[in-house]
Amino acid sequence: MNALSSISDRELRERLTAAVSAERMAAADVIYHLLELDRRQLYLQDACSSLFAYCVERLGYSEDGATKRMRVARISQRFPQILDELASGAIHLTGLFLLSGHLTEENVDRLLAEARGKSKRQLEELLARWYPKPDVAATITPSVPEPAQAELSTMSGAGNSGLPPAPPVPAARARVEPLSATSFRVEFTASAALRDKLEHARNLLSHAVPSGDLAALIERAIDELIAVETKRRSGAGKPRKHRETRAGSRHVPVEVQRAVRERDEDQCTFVDAEGRRCSEKRFLTIEHIDPYALGGPTTVENCCLLCSAHNAYQARQVFGGEHVARKVEEARASREQSGVLAEHAAHAESAEPAAPPECDAFQKVCYALVHMGFKATQAKRALDELRRRGVEPRPEPLLRAAITVLTP
Ligand SMILES: [Zn+2]
Fold first, then answer.
1. Is residue 163 part of a domain?
2. Which of 47, 98, 168, 366 is the most exposed, fewest CB within 10 Å of its CB?
3. What's the pLDDT tens digit per position in 135-150?
4. Separation of CA 265 and ligand 1 centre (Å)
5. How far apart are the CA of 388 and the centre of ligand 1, in A?
6. How far is the CA of 351 from the centre of ligand 1 (A)?
7. C-alpha of residue 277 to centroid of ligand 1, in Å
């Protein structure tokens, strides 16, 4: 900074302008790179369960910063021109984030043109003009479900612009805001049914919680819920008949589940090349390390907790993700069954195709193929062909071979 104290006012302005310009270019470049990283799902390799986790944990962005960049990156896939707006400084990142929920093919050009050079507040006013919302009442009242933006536009005659409707904006999310070291403000929207239940619980517990304090009431309820759920998962307290696990069954006995959850501390166990562990604690499933479909046993040593993202990632590693993905993509292009197919393919790629127990490798692979979007008759014909060729009846080679037959 001392170096700057000796330069002229004019030079200082010029340097600052250049730095801001470079910052804008870099901001657009960051979005551009994030998009490609997202497409490759590279965050999975780096022990993050999502792009958001990657932005926060690996890139050091704040949660808000991560959310804005992710949203802008994903909308820029549909409307690449918004990166030019960002790079040129015509619309700032926050502005693009605000616009992102409203952009459609029909309105993008006009909306971007009007948004250029506007501050955040001006943009909020612009959007309020284009997509007016009902007035907010001055008191706290039961929340009325907000009509989708499309309905609002229609109701208000689409404002003064005759604009096409904007896509619906997702419902408000719950908010947890720290107030002090020991207290938080928790805010969420309750349904009428939940409001009634709260009232009912308050009455039932009027002796235990005489103040009727909602936080105290909810803490009791949550304590009970945690206890019940922990018990259910661990199978504690239930006198159980010891069931022998059938050979070939993919059922994970509760003793194994409990031991695995305890050992893995209810957190995804994926570790990247640098030894960083995935921090995900939600959407966890117990998975076989040596895949069940390939003969891995259901033991504590061979099971671990994985988040859904890393479960799918590991599955792609086992079944040859690139190969499977490429073949699935080709099949999709040829049949133009987007959407549903991708979902089925993801399901089928899951390390252990959810085949019914006791079915042989051919049946398992047939099941997986159908979930990838192939017709059952096509899958059967391909597998018959492979039987004739004498392909090894194990799921992995069979699946690879079947896909090759189906997508020559
Ligand atoms: Zn994970």
1. no
2. 168
3. 755 544 454 444 433 3
4. 13
5. 41
6. 15
7. 8
| Longest Cα–Cα distance in the chain | 85
Q: What is the DSSP letter of 271?
A: B
Does 91 share its domain with 19? Answer: yes
287 φ, ψ to 5°?
-125, 155
Please indicate, yes or no, whether residues 273 and 343 belong to a single structural domain of this protein: no
- Would the pLDDT of 82 be above 80? yes
How many structural domains does the chain have?
4
What are the pLDDT digits (tens) for 190-210? 888 888 888 888 888 888 888
CA–centroid distance, residue 36 to ligand 1 (Å):
20
Say whether pLDDT at 24 is over 80: yes
Amino acid at 369: L
Cα(44) to centroid(ligand 1), Å: 7
Cα–Cα distance for residue pair 161/127, rounded to 1 Å: 11
265 domain residue, yes or no = yes
Residue 360 tokens, joined: 């042989």
The residue segments making up the domain with residue 217 are: 190-234
318 CA → ligand 1 middle, Å: 16
Tell me if 310 is assigned to some domain: yes
Quick check: is 152 in a domain?
A: no
Of 295, 316, 337, the residue at which a domain comes to its end is: 316
CA–centroid distance, 58 to ligand 1, in Å, is 14
Rounded distance, CA 395 to CA 115, Å? 55
pLDDT of residue 206: 83
Domain final residue pick, 103, 130, 157: 130
The first and second tokens of residue 167, run together, are: 């896509």
User: Per-residue pLDDT for 73 more than 70?
Assistant: yes
Confidence tier at 174 by pLDDT (50, 70, 90):
confident
User: Facing residues of 176 across strands?
Assistant: 186
